[in-house]
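dude i think i finally got it to work??
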Amino acid sequence: MKKRKNSRRSVMSKSKRKVVVIGWDAADWKIIFPLIEAGYMPTLAKFLKEGVWGKLATLDPPMSPMLWTSIATGKRADKHGILGFLEPTPDGQAIRPVNSTSRKVKAIWNILHQQGYQSNVVGWWPSHPAEPINGVMVSNFYQQFKGKYGDPWPLPKGTVYPQRLEEEMENLRVHAGEMTEAHVLPFVPTAVEVDYEKDKRLYSVSKILAHCTSIHAAATHLMEHEPWDFTAIYYDAIDHFCHGFMKFHPPQLPGVPDDLFQRYKQVVTSGYIYHDMMLERLLELAGDDATVMIISDHGFHSDHLRPRKLPKEPAAPAHEHSPFGIFAMKGPGIKKNEQIFGASLLDITPTLLTLYDLPLGDDMEGRPLLQCFEEAKVPATIPSWEEVEGDCGMHSEDVQEDTWAAQEAMQQLIELGYVEAPDDDKQEAIRKTVNESQYYLAKTHIHAGRHDDAIPILETLFATDPDQTRYGLTLCSSYLAKKMGKKGKQIIDQLRNNEDVSEDYLDYMEGNLLLSSNRPRMALELLRKAQKNAPEFAEVHVQVGKALNMRQLWEEAAEAFKTSLSLDNDSPIAHHGLAITYLRRGRYEEAVNELLHALELMHFFPPAHYHLGEALVLMEHYEEAAQAFQMAASMAPGMTRAYRWLVNIYEEKIPDAAKAAHYRTIINERIKGVITIVSGLPRSGTSMMMQMLHRGGMEALTDELRQPDNNNPKGYYEYEPVKRLGKDNSWLHEAEDKVVKIIGPLLYNLPAEYEYKIVFMERDMSELLRSQQIMLGKTSHAEANAYPATLAAAFEKQLQQAKDWIKRQSNVEALFVPYAEVIAHPEEQAENINAFLGNALNVKEMALSVDPDLYRNKAVKS
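look at this
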């Protein structure tokens, strides 16, 4: 935490824009649009016509305190420091609801504070104790009440800043006891028939409504009576209504009693309607000259995806969240009646900075949503707002909180199911809290693709607490991502002894491990089993589709992806997989539609942009294809194939010498392509593998100096300079994006600046030596099986040294292929090899190139 220094007004030019951010926790378009069509949310309907809207991708884990802090900072939880709902107190003797002092970076209101803007922040989670910003902050403890209506209800210390407003704000709060029939009946029309002693749900409605109304009263009062440039308001009512009553939302779920369904079926929709009514007042107070943004941190499953049963774990209700929230914005200079795509929670703060013409921090992980603006903008950047000195309205970690308020906030989290009741053993409660925050930190790393950071955390957690199966399953998923199949299999085997883990889910996980190990046939057996036993699990159909795509069974794969999308149409991976099946079958327009749908859901998806470019080229839409390849390359700068397509387009399709030269320069100077190598010992099947890859569609680097003979009637596929690799590797650039044969003992000489994919052939040593001796003309020795033991030992040592070298190289990925298996099962092995090399080869042609009759030196079995 930086020390506060004397306030210093920025010299940056100030925008006159006023901005309001309205947070509706868990709001979801799936519920909103039907309500708009039915005329129940007229204010939001008008808002969307006057501005832009789209889906807002959440982060993982979908825990509200973490997400709303990411929204306010543009950074993930590992940077901003809020890791869940609870945290140990500074003295390490107890736990408390997560505190605003634990945030390690500036929020948008702190940045605006330094630039001289005034902000009103109401109810943001977490914001207690309130920060001393330029403006007013009302913390997320404000609406909490204790006891019955009429009992003393003091405002918790640290709830309101500045203190001059404490009494004024205290009187605006609403207690659940103030909720009359007129307030509750729109939510529960039969409320008068409810037995309050037996059914506590009605009180829950009153409590949520009172909390929401308190926040709204505070926000509208401040907008009307206090000066402001920026207002941020957080409403948690939709999330609370959904957690409490989504089980009663139409259509009626199996097992939900008819009487309860009829009584509570409109609570959720009434909650949305109430928010639309509040929105009308907020817009009136904001005025037409303000920019207003409405967002949610995630959605909420409201259809067949509603989980029937929640796992026994802390924060289990988060499993009810869906991965896409809402984004809508209108105001001066904002486009009208237009949908935007690819927005993420991390994009909100960069967009707000752009609205104020302030620079972005290079350390922010999102990007401004420039597609929202009528006029093109090119935001400036600075290294980090954390380096901008001066008072920023943050306070030090030693600020004390109100103990009672912490207890009340804790009780609400317990009632909602977000946290377990604290253990009587304080140290055990602290240990659980720390472990949980570490687990969320690991999940944050995983969502950002940083599995190397997540794995050590998860290994420690699982070793310490092996009964927490989610630790093991999450660790297994990271092993899978890093292609650490053996370690992943060990975790799965360990979990198969745990009755709390579904056998079907473990089959699914093991199938995924086999896919990552390029074993699509073996994977498919387990995935089909899981698919049969858990047909409602959308993700298993996606993985079945992936396995079928790897086997080039396009029609079967398409059916699997369609089944997945029928269960969950918001899966970008399923849309992408289905697009590939269309692309490979020549149905290019359908492929483009699916790819665009995938990119609507997840903009940062380089393979989808690449395949979109490929489909557009085949449709002869070259300008649009170039844009897609440029996007893919900008997101994945090492994607050589995208740059090669750009060179091809600008050299042959829409000639532009300057652009072609530009992209060729990038390839030549900045990008080292992938070199595919076939390796192994001499006579281990390397020539056969070269033949397979060449016939499958891969260009082979060979000079054909060594002609076919009786030992290799189909050719040797050798390249003479390979022999001098130890002295001269200047030719290696010629092998980029091609396949070249390099025997195992020469692999050590490969320079580090390239990426290598090695298909390493393995063969029975006696067969290999027999074949070598026959090739050397020592037929009598071969027929007598007279092989020098020292030679066999030397070769075994060379093999092990080569394998050890491969393991040590971060730029090398290898697939070990048994020669005998290729002969016996050519199509299966061709599928495995094709999967390893990117799934772009013709598997049938690869398999047809294998001639079993050339397996002439089989081992003699004793």
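The CA atoms of residues 763 and 819 lie 5 Å apart.
im so relieved honestly
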